[in-house]
Design goal:
Blueprint (H helix, E strand, L loop, with lengths): L4 H13 L21 E11 L2 E2 L3 E7 L5 H5 L9 E9 L2 E8 L5 E9 L2 E8 L3 E12 L7
């Protein structure tokens, strides 16, 4: 089933909002075995349209030692609650999952760490290709709870 342009843009807009939420269903494992450093992280999210990435939306967040990787680095579910996360796969340097959204083609997402201080990831929609790019970089230790 093809989505019309407006419906597709709305769905993609909802996916963009997902970075701010932490509603991914967690897979329970020792968070300490995940290869990411705690500290202050800069996250850049780019919306991809017609194969071109747009200007980044930047957010900052402090990652505690032992934080759950699923709620820290894979918080990509729409706030509307119309999407469900399935097939979560976790390795020491990557996370992959599927998003099934009401009335939309299935999407797949991933986060891959090339070091303990940097990762890239994306969301791809079946039949539309990559719709979101994300990049995270650790900048410093967290200095207060407000970081």
């Amino acid at each position: 089933m093809m989505m019309n342009g407006l419906r597709y843009r709305r769905w993609v807009a909802a996916v963009v909002c997902l970075v701010a939420t932490t509603m991914v269903r967690p897979v329970y494992a020792d968070a300490g075995d995940f290869g990411a450093m705690p500290g202050l992280w800069k996250i850049q999210v780019r919306h991809v349209e017609n194969g071109k990435a747009g200007a980044p939306t930047v957010t900052w967040h402090c990652v505690d030692e032992g934080a759950d990787p699923w709620t820290t680095f894979a918080s990509w579910t729409p706030a509307h609650g119309e999407c469900t996360t399935t097939d979560p796969q976790r390795r020491t340097t990557s996370l992959t999952w599927k998003l099934t959204c009401k009335g939309s083609p299935e999407a797949s997402a991933h986060v891959d760490f090339d070091s303990a201080k940097h990762y890239t990831g994306s969301v791809s929609v079946e039949g539309h290709g990559e719709v979101i790019q994300v990049e995270g970089s650790r900048y410093a230790a967290c200095t207060s709870p407000e970081d």
